[in-house]
Every structure is written in structure tokens, then in C-alpha cells.
Write a structure and sequence with these properties.
The complex is a heterodimer of chains A (about 110) and B (about 575). With about 110 residues, chain A is mainly alpha-helical. Chain A is about 70% helix and about 0% strand. Chain A has helices spanning about 1-75, 80-85. The radius of gyration of chain B is 32 Å and the shape is elongated. Chains A and B meet through α1 of A and α1, β2 and α10 of B.
Chain lengths: ~110, ~575
């Protein structure tokens, strides 16, 4: 009888311990996931803001590059035939054209 | 219920209560403690209807190597403003600001003394460095606001094509050109409901796949270096001949991609408000119609070849004039040349010759072909495309058909005639001219734009034969054959037309339109070039005024695109 009571008490204690563990585990999980959720939301907001900033930077940089490109186009206009003559370049009397699509085959090595 | 359960319930209840308390406190803080501050900030944001954070998709040019250069983009800068009610010593503020800014004392005082003013701007569009210097001064009542605005790095380049943004019906939006045509796509400040970040991303991708993505940027077919060269050439032409308007189109005859579309006078897109005559904002290449003159003759000849009514060797007797329905038409020099061939009709630009072709083809067949070529709008992706004026062809009189055969009595836009003339070189297909080759969606997806090739008007044989005839025009007739290139074949034709009296009948005696078109290499052409100018002074014919700019553009394109030679002419002009 005494042994039976002892076994019951032990079983009750195990159930209680098990319920207790589950409760605190669940509570810890809730806390963990809540904090993790807060972290993710925070990270999302931060990254979104960062993305916006970077996009703005990209647009500004592209704008600057475009200005430089157009400046380059303008500067290229100075390289005229007259300028070429001034620096000593002369027209080719008999221009030789190499057509890109004239012959795409391999040439024979005629060296012996 | 056990004691342990009570504790658990109390812990859970405590947690819930704590979270509720945090939320209520946050709400209280937002609504009551800092409510006014946020309301003021919101008010300040919407002082004007221009959204505070202006954003818009870009418009890019494409270089021949495929590199993208932004032609319309966003620029960021800073506005310096002050609140007069917070400033006690305006002279002191002015002195401090004048070390950094070039501010006029009178203007500053005038802005300061405006009654009930709480906000006045000192300077706009400042760079970051200047803004930092002003911030370092720490002047009470002086503030710096970040601003963004539409910026066109190319300034004048392709201004009529790109267009600009302005106010219409109290909305700031694209007003001309591509800015207007693609307003829905470029606009980023739509009054959409707020969406969750994730929802925005995933619904955006979904929309893009379903073709419903509404935010994007456009990549055009315009090549900036070519555009710049063509514009300079037009400016020189205008200065030399004192023309009223000058325009040019460079197009790929097979795809309809516009490489360059330019007109002069032009304007700086960043300073369009300085323009007095707003009509120069329009794009005459698309929105205006003209009687094009003799550049229509190759179309008439191609119809004759296609219907087998004539060949290049067909002969007729040129009497110098022809009377139809009581009207007499004459050759441009009023001279008769006797028995000549169809090749001579093009070489010498004989009006009586194309009248002969129309007679051989038959009026109705001729009109049917002409309608296929020019009666409809081209469908180019620019706003306000003009509808061709071909009402005269409904009169059913011989004189109307004959007039149309040499480009009088019908009026079409430059883009319309360029498309029609492209059929001569590309094997007879009607293409859809277009400026946008790619749409880059915000979601990261890219859509290639390539309109389908339209109806075939002429056969390959006709295309080759008319191209050969037009090459002969350049090699033997144009400037006496002096401008022909020994290594590259060019097919071209000039046109000179009388300008119709505006709102009246008949033509001005002293006002002409000169036009010129050509494509090269003559067989399998890379480009078609069209140039025109109105009311030039100092020369009577197009061959005198437009041969030089046409050849300059042609030589530039051959060099720039490294177009391989397609023939070898000897000193006698023979291949």
C-alpha cells in the first residue's frame, strides 16, 4: 500500500514536472519568437530604408555619369579632320577596307 | 483549479497586459504627446502639390555598343529657406548667408518683408557641399530641405523626342514627347493605397509576369553620338540657308528603330521656361504634315515596277508639260527632253515621267498602293501623330493622281514618308517606326519592344530594281555624280515642293520645302536618312541645299558604324 502510494506520488510529480517544463518552454518560445519577429521587422525596416538610400545614390550617380557621357560626346566633336591635319595626320591615299564578314575561314600555314 | 495554474494564468495575463500597455503608451505618444509635431511635419510636406520625394522612371539612350546613357533622370539638391518670424536680425542672416551663397540683398529683404510669411526660399537646387556649409553656420530660422527634380543631362539633345514635365490640370506630369507618351509607366507618384513591403514586392513580380507592371524605365533606340552629329548638321544647314524649320530622321529600314530624330530650332529641356514660342516644343517630324515633292517619285516608280506597268528601260516622250482637267503640269525646269527612259525620269526628276507611270498603272491601282504606303498613321510611340492629308485623291480627277505621283496635293509627316520610303530598300515591308526598344520594370524584369513587321507592299525584285535605279541617281545625276562614294553604294533622291497657302488655295510662289532621302548600302541597307527644311533662301533646289548635309551624315554613319564597303568603283565610275 505504502509502495503504491509512493509510486502514485512519483507519477504525479513527473506529470507536474512535465507540464511545468512544457509551460516554460512554450513561454520561452513565445518570447523568443516575439523578439525574433521584432528583430525581423526591424531589420526589414532598416533594409528598406537602406535600399531607398542606395537607390537614391544609384540615381544620383547615374545622373553624374550621364552628364560626363554627354560632356565626352561634346568633347569628341573637337576631334575633327582639321584637328587631325593640324597635328600632322594625313589622309590615306588609297584606303584599304577590311570587311568584317569578308572571310571567316582559317588561313593555311604555307611555311615549310 | 490548482495554485500552479493560477500563477500561470497570472503570468500570461501579466504579459498580455504589459504588451497592451506598451501599445497604448505608443499610441498616446504618437497621437497626444507628439501629435502636433507630426501634423506640422505632414503639413510641411504638402505645402505644394509636388510630392516631397519626387521620383520617376528614367529615359535612356543606347550607344552603338549597347551602353545605356540616361537622357532623363532625377537629380538631388537642396533648398535653403528661412522663417522670418524666427529671425530677429535679418541683416546678420544675410551677411552670413552671402559668404556661401550669391544672394541679392534686395531680393532677400523683399522676401523677408512679405506679410504673414513663415516660409521663404533663398536658393534652390544647391549641391551637398554648399548645403553643408550653410548647415555649419547654424543660423536660427534658416533651414535646408532636400529636393529632387527631373533632370536632362543632354540638355538640348533630342529635346523634341524626350519632351519634359509640366503642370496640367493641377497635376505635374509629362507634357511632350516620350515623357508624355509613357507617363503611366514613368510616373512613380501614383495615388495608390499603401501596401506592405512584402506585398509590394511579390505583387509587383506577379503583375510584371502578367504584363500589368505599371512602374518602369524606358530605353530608347536613339544613339546619342549620332543624334548629336545630326543636330549639329541641322543647325549648320539652318544657319546656311536661313530655313524656317529643319529636321532629320535616321532609321533602321528593317526594324523601324529610330537612331536619330532631330529638328531645329530646338530648346534646352532643363530651361524650357525660357522659350517664348511654345510651338517649338512640338515634334514636327511626327506632328506636322508637308507636301514632300519629288522624293515621292521613287514610290510611284516602284508601283510601276511592281505592277509591271514599266521597267527601268521603258521609254516615253517627254514634251515638258502635260494638261489634265484644265491644269498644266510641267517639269521643274519647264524643259522637254524627248524620248527618255524611266531611269532618266528619276535621274532628271521629270514630273511628266511619273505622270506617264500613273497612266500606265491606272489611277485606282496607283491610289490603292499609295494608300497602303501613307494613308494610315505609322503608330510611332510619340504623342499627337498627324494624320496624312490625302483627301485630294477622293476627287477622282487625273490631275490629283498625277500631282500625288510627284509629291504635291498630298501631305504626310516626315516619319510617315520615311517609313514609306524604307519599303524601297528593305524588300518591300512596312515597318513600325519606334523609339523604345526596352522597358525595364521596377520588379527587375525587362521587356523587349519589337513591333511586328507590317504588310509587304513590294516584292524583293521590285525593291532591288528601284534600289539599283536610285543608286544610279547618286552615281550619275546627283551633283553630276561628284558626291558618289567609290566603296559604298547609296540610293537617294531629292525633292523640292511648293508650300501650300495656309488656310487658302494654291501655293506660295516664293516658299519651298526641300527634302532628301537616301539609304545605304543600297542593297541590304543599314540606315535610311531623311532630311528636310522649309523656306530656305539662296537656292532653288534640294540638290543644292541638302546634298552636303546628307552626305556628311552618311559618311559619318559609315565611319562610326564601320559599315564594310560593298563595291569598288574605278575612276570612270564603273564597278
Amino acid at each position: 500500500m505504502n509502495y503504491r502510494n509512493q509510486t502514485r506520488a512519483k507519477a504525479k510529480t513527473n506529470v507536474f514536472l512535465s507540464q511545468n517544463t512544457i509551460f516554460w518552454t512554450l513561454l520561452a518560445s513565445i518570447a523568443f519568437f516575439a523578439l525574433f519577429y521584432v528583430y525581423l521587422i526591424n531589420a526589414t525596416v532598416m533594409n528598406t530604408a537602406q535600399l531607398g538610400k542606395i537607390e537614391e545614390l544609384v540615381v544620383d550617380t547615374r545622373s553624374e555619369i550621364s552628364q560626363l557621357e554627354f560632356k565626352l560626346i561634346e568633347e569628341n566633336k573637337n576631334f575633327t579632320k582639321e584637328y587631325a591635319s593640324r597635328i600632322g595626320l594625313v589622309d590615306v591615299e588609297e584606303p584599304v577596307f577590311v570587311a568584317r564578314n569578308s572571310n571567316s575561314g582559317l588561313s593555311l600555314n604555307e611555311q615549310r | 483549479m490548482s495554485k500552479d495554474n493560477n500563477i500561470r494564468i497570472k503570468v500570461v495575463f501579466g504579459c498580455v497586459l504589459f504588451v497592451a500597455f506598451v501599445l497604448i503608451f505608443r499610441l498616446y505618444s504618437l497621437q497626444i504627446i507628439n501629435g502636433q509635431e507630426y501634423m506640422d511635419a505632414a503639413e510641411k510636406k504638402y505645402v505644394t502639390k509636388v510630392p516631397n520625394v519626387f521620383n520617376r522612371g528614367s529615359i535612356s539612350f543606347t550607344t552603338k555598343d549597347g551602353e545605356k546613357i540616361d537622357a532623363a533622370t532625377i537629380q538631388t539638391g537642396y533648398t535653403v529657406s528661412f522663417n522670418p518670424s524666427l529671425i530677429t536680425e535679418p541683416a546678420d542672416v544675410y551677411n552670413k548667408l552671402s559668404f556661401v551663397l550669391d544672394v541679392d540683398a534686395e531680393t532677400f529683404t523683399e522676401r523677408f518683408e512679405r506679410p504673414d510669411s513663415r516660409y521663404a526660399e533663398v536658393e534652390k537646387k544647391l549641391d551637398q557641399e554648399t548645403a553643408d556649409k550653410i548647415l555649419d553656420l547654424k543660423i536660427k530660422g534658416v533651414g535646408i530641405n532636400k529636393e529632387r527634380w527631373r533632370f536632362y543631362p543632354g540638355k538640348n539633345l533630342a529635346s523634341n523626342v524626350i519632351g519634359f514635365m509640366g503642370w496640367k490640370d493641377e497635376i505635374y506630369k509629362g507634357q511632350y514627347g516620350l515623357e508624355r507618351q509613357y507617363e503611366d509607366l514613368l510616373n512613380r507618384n501614383k495615388e495608390d493605397n499603401y501596401e506592405n513591403f512584402f506585398v509590394e514586392i511579390f505583387s509587383g513580380i506577379g503583375d510584371a509576369f502578367k504584363g500589368r507592371d505599371s512602374d518602369g524605365s524606358i530605353v530608347t533606340t536613339i544613339e546619342p553620338t549620332v543624334q548629336s552629329f545630326v543636330e549639329e548638321e541641322l543647325q549648320e544647314t539652318q544657319a546656311k540657308w536661313n530655313s524656317k524649320t529643319v529636321g532629320a530622321i535616321v532609321m533602321d529600314p528593317y526594324t523601324g528603330e529610330i537612331i536619330s530624330m532631330a529638328s531645329y530650332p530646338t530648346f534646352d529641356l532643363n530651361n524650357f521656361r525660357e522659350v517664348d514660342d511654345v510651338s517649338i516644343f512640338n515634334n514636327p517630324m511626327v506632328e506636322d504634315v508637308y507636301e514632300m515633292g519629288s522624293i515621292v517619285k521613287p514610290l510611284t516608280m516602284a508601283i510601276g515596277l511592281e505592277t509591271k506597268a514599266v521597267t527601268a528601260k521603258t521609254q516615253y516622250e517627254d514634251t515638258g508639260s502635260l494638261t489634265l482637267n484644265g491644269f498644266t503640269i510641267r517639269n521643274y525646269d519647264k524643259k522637254a527632253r524627248g524620248v527618255v527612259t524611266m531611269q532618266d525620269v528619276l535621274n532628271k526628276s521629270l514630273n511628266t515621267g511619273v505622270a506617264f507611270v500613273v497612266n500606265k498603272v491606272g489611277n485606282q491601282i496607283f491610289v490603292d498602293y499609295l494608300k497602303k504606303l501613307v494613308a494610315e498613321k505609322t503608330g510611332i510611340d510619340l504623342p499627337n501623330e498627324a494624320h496624312p492629308l490625302i483627301e485630294n485623291l477622293k476627287n477622282n480627277r487625273d490631275i490629283e493622281y498625277v500631282s500625288a505621283s510627284y509629291g504635291q496635293g498630298i501631305a504626310v509627316s516626315p516619319i510617315s514618308i520615311t517609313r514609306a520610303l524604307a519599303t524601297l530598300g528593305n524588300g518591300g515591308f512596312l515597318v513600325t517606326p519606334h523609339l523604345v526598344k526596352e522597358i525595364k520594370y521596377e520588379s527587375g524584369l525587362t521587356k523587349k519592344v519589337s513591333p511586328e513587321v507590317g504588310e509587304r507592299i513590294f516584292s524583293q525584285g521590285t525593291s532591288e530594281e528601284i534600289s539599283r535605279m536610285l543608286t544610279n541617281v547618286v552615281d550619275e545625276a546627283l551633283a553630276g555624280g561628284e558626291v558618289a562614294l567609290p566603296n559604298h553604294s547609296i540610293a537617294a533622291k531629292t525633292g523640292t515642293a511648293q508650300i501650300a497657302v495656309k488656310g487658302g488655295r494654291g501655293y506660295y510662289d516664293d516658299r519651298f520645302l526641300h527634302s532628301f532621302f537616301g539609304y545605304f548600302p543600297s542593297f541590304n541597307p543599314r540606315f535610311i536618312v531623311f532630311i528636310y527644311h522649309t523656306e530656305p533662301t539662296g537656292a532653288d533646289y534640294s540638290s543644292q541645299t541638302l546634298t552636303e548635309p546628307f552626305m556628311d551624315i552618311t559618311k559619318f554613319l559609315i565611319n562610326y558604324y564601320e559599315i564594310p564597303p560593298d563595291r569598288q568603283l574605278n575612276d570612270k565610275g564603273n564597278i
